[in-house]
Amino acid sequence: MRLLTVNVVEELIPGPKETGFTAIDKRPQDGRVQVGVLGLAGDRVCDTKNHGGPDLALYAYAEEDANWWAAQLGRDIPTGLFGENLRTQGVDVNGALLGEVWAIGDEVEVMVRAPRIPCITFQHRMQEPRWVKRFHQAGRPGAYLKVLRTGSIAAGDPVRIVSRPDHEVTIAHMFGAQDPAKLRTMLDSGVDLMDELRETAHRVLARD
Questions:
Q1: Looking at residue 23, what is its pLDDT?
Q2: How is residue 75 annotated by DSSP?
Q3: 78 Cβ contact partners less than 8 Å away, ≥ 6 residues apart
Q4: Helix, strand or coil for residue 65?
Q5: Where are the domains of the chain?
């Protein structure tokens, strides 16, 4: 399991939101890149209402899922096209549990926090019909990560699972089916959750 690329914004480009510009255009970096609590050195966030912050500091997407999309769409999915900061290889990003901790290289530790929710900016970026719906249906959202230990990372760094919480709610599960029994176990486990996901779990349980 390793990083294929580490990506930061190349330039701000016009987007569809009222912010006017978007930082979704990420490109791979040479050498080591510093990682802080708010993400990669040199990266940017334009829509701070819906993106960024400590819980959404990094966005990881798997090469295996990018290749699946390439076959589905009949086009290349180069690293950074989805706005990901980290393109991984051999990492089951969508199978990662909420609260799972990874070590990246020798210094950095991150916690798996939430699935990526597609938005109008992503639709605008891809220029694919019904992209938001298709992305939802595919169940391959990638994961947002919180930085627990800062340092530097680079392409080729190994990724290692440090710990996994005692529940079964994965990134893909939280993005899709949201089985009440699994959500209840997750809440009972005491795992550190984003408030938004905790509230979502409670709403699902209230309907059950």
A1: 79
A2: S
A3: none
A4: helix
A5: 2-175
Q: Which CATH number applies to 2-175: 3.40.50.150, 2.60.120.20, 3.40.30.10, 2.40.33.20?
A: 2.40.33.20
42's CB contacts (< 8 A; 6+ apart) are: 8, 9, 29, 33
- Cα 91 to Cα 51, 83, 208, distances in angstroms: 23, 18, 33
What is the pTM for the complete model shown?
A: 0.93
Q: Are strands 58-62 and 86-89 parallel, antiparallel or unpaired?
A: parallel
Whole-angstrom distance, CA of residue 153 vs CA of residue 125: 27
The answer to whether residue 208 scores a pLDDT higher than 70 is no
Tokens standing for residue 180: 């009440």
- What does the H/E/C string look like for 79-141? CCCCCCCEEEECCCCCCCECCCEEEECCCEEEEEEEECCCCHHHHHHHCCCCHHHHHHHHCCC
For 30-88, what is each residue's pLDDT tens digit?
Answer: 999 999 999 999 888 866 777 788 999 999 999 999 999 999 999 999 999 999 999 99
Calculated CA dihedral for residues 204, 113, 171, 133, nearest 10 degrees: 80
